[in-house]
Each structure stands twice: as structure tokens, then as C-alpha cells.
Design brief:
With 300 residues, this protein is mainly alpha-helical. Helices cover 66% and strands 9% of the residues.
Length: 300
């Protein structure tokens, strides 16, 4: 069975995330100082958002490095699932932050306060520029890795949040409209929830070892049963270890009592079926005239 692991890609991802972490620490410190000086709750809220991203990126960076560790007798799968755990934590955190932003926005809408809008505008522009650099750095890696994708979404929403803060600052400066910041904050928070929900559900399904959505257990079993040597396929498990590695295991009843060398020939045929469905990790238990449950899915 073939395995393709791109170590250079993983190293690039780790380096890019390290750069993004440093940039976001700078943003967070700057916005906290700017928010305190200007009296802007919006800027402090954006600083809190960026601080959550620093934590998120550090977690993603650690799990990205853990995923490169080799399997051992104590960790037979290695640390590959660490990235899925990180993606889940990041996406849930985003939803929690979005809810917090909505609450804060409603309070600011009810009781708007005057702030030093020039400081708000300058720090928001700085945040936009630095976050855009981070987004560009992680864009390519986010397409192939759920963990990095969650960090990328954090940074992308930071850009949008900072744009809203900047627009709010401009409207406060030129039109004295202080409630616009609250309205924009709610819109961004709704986007945060929408963009994070799908990633949360996907990571939960993998952690719960659900069947991958693009695969059908019945179709796989039918394909195996079409082999002339196979009578029945049962006791099946199909799951994902992370967003790339899919595992399949099953018991198969054989028409006749065969030798191991003959069974190896059957395995080659089954491997072809697995490859057609992009499954590169599978385990088959052969049986002959065994009295057991022949259902595809067997309750333990």
C-alpha cells in the first residue's frame, strides 16, 4: 500500500504559522494600547479577537509539529489526530467569540460613547495590513489542511473585523455616527458563526469516527462481494483518522477453505477497490463457515 507524506510542505506550513503568530502578537499589543488610550471598546474587542487568534495559532502550530512525529508503540497512530482536535477547538472558539461580539455590539448600540477616532482608524489600518500579510502567508496551506484552514479563517475574520473598526472610526470622525460600529460588529459576528459552523461539524464527525461523507459503506461492501471468492462482507468499520487518512476494516466470508497464498491474491483485488475510493489503510479478516453475525454493521 502506498503512502505519500510531504515533509517539505509541512515544514513550510510550520514556518508560515510561526511568522503569523509573531505578527498577531504585535497586533494584539498595539490594539490593547490603542484601545486604552482612545477609550474605544471596539478596538479593545478587536484586540481580544486578535488575542484569541494568537492562542489559536500557537495551538495550530504545536499540533502541526506534533503531526510530524512518527508512530511509536505507545502512540501507534502518532499525533495525527492532534490537528483535528486543534481545528475543533479553534472553530468552537470562533463561535464563542462571535456570540461575545454580538452581546458587546448590542450594548454599544444602546449606549454609544465618544472615542478618539483618529487612534481607532490608525490602529485598525495597521491591523488590516498585518493580518492581510498573515492571510496571504497561510492561504495556500489552508487548502490542504483542516487545522491550518481553521487558523486561516481566524485571520481572515480579523481582517474583516479591523475593516469594520476602521469604517466605524471614519464614520465617527466625519459624521458622528457612533452606532455604525455596533451594526458592523454584529454582521461580522454572524459571518464568524456561519464560517465556523461547517468546520466544527466536520471536525466533530472525524473525532466521533463517523463514516466519511464521500464514501458509502454499502457500495464498498458490494464491490468486495462481487469478487468471485467472496461470499459475504460484514462487521465493517469505516472512519477517518484526520482530514486525509481513511481507514477500513471488515470480515469477509469465503466460498471455500483456502491457503494463505490464495488469500493474498484476494487482498490484492481488495486493495485495488480500496485505492479506487482513496482508502490506503485497510484490514481484512477472512472467515470460512464461521457462525457469527453477518450484518454489515455489528453492535458491540
Amino acid at each position: 500500500m502506498g503512502h505519500d507524506h510531504s515533509h517539505s510542505s509541512t515544514q513550510v506550513s510550520g514556518r508560515n504559522m510561526a511568522i503569523a503568530i509573531i505578527l498577531n502578537i504585535i497586533i494584539t499589543i498595539g490594539q490593547i494600547i490603542g484601545g486604552l488610550i482612545s477609550g474605544s471598546v471596539a478596538l479593545l474587542s478587536d484586540a481580544l479577537h486578535n488575542f484569541s487568534d494568537v492562542v489559536s495559532l500557537i495551538l495550530s502550530y504545536i499540533t502541526n509539529r506534533l503531526a510530524k512525529r512518527k508512530s511509536t508503540e505507545q502512540q501507534t497512530y502518532g499525533y495525527k489526530r492532534a490537528e483535528i482536535i486543534s481545528a475543533f477547538v479553534n472553530s468552537v472558539t470562533l463561535i464563542a467569540i462571535a456570540i461575545y461580539l454580538i452581546v458587546e455590539a448590542v450594548e454599544r448600540f444602546i449606549s454609544p460613547k465618544e472615542v478618539d477616532y483618529n487612534i481607532v482608524i490608525y490602529f485598525a489600518i495597521g491591523s488590516i495590513i498585518i493580518n492581510l500579510i498573515s492571510v496571504i502567508i497561510l492561504h495556500r496551506d489552508s487548502k490542504d489542511n483542516m487545522n491550518i484552514k481553521s487558523a486561516y479563517l481566524h485571520l481572515l475574520t480579523d481582517v474583516l473585523t479591523s475593516i469594520a473598526v476602521m469604517i466605524g472610526g471614519l464614520l465617527m470622525k466625519y459624521y458622528g455616527i457612533y452606532r455604525i460600529d455596533s451594526i458592523l460588529s454584529v454582521m461580522i459576528a454572524i459571518y464568524l458563526i456561519f464560517s465556523s459552523y461547517k468546520l466544527t461539524i466536520e471536525s466533530i464527525k472525524i473525532l466521533m469516527q463517523f463514516t466519511p461523507k464521500n464514501l458509502d459503506v454499502a457500495v464498498l461492501c458490494k464491490s468486495i462481494c462481487q469478487l468471485e471468492e467472496v461470499l459475504n462482507t460484514h462487521h465493517v468499520h469505516l472512519w477517518q483518522l484526520n482530514d486525509k487518512d481513511i481507514f477500513f476494516e471488515a470480515h469477509i466470508d469465503l466460498h471455500s477453505d483456502i491457503r494463505i497464498t490464495e488469500f493474498q491474491e484476494i487482498l490484492i483485488k481488495i486493495e485495488k477497490i480500496m485505492d479506487d475510493h482513496h482508502i490506503h489503510h485497510f484490514n481484512i479478516q477472512p472467515e470460512f463457515n464461521r457462525d457469527d453475525n453477518k450484518s454489515i454493521i455489528v453492535e458491540h
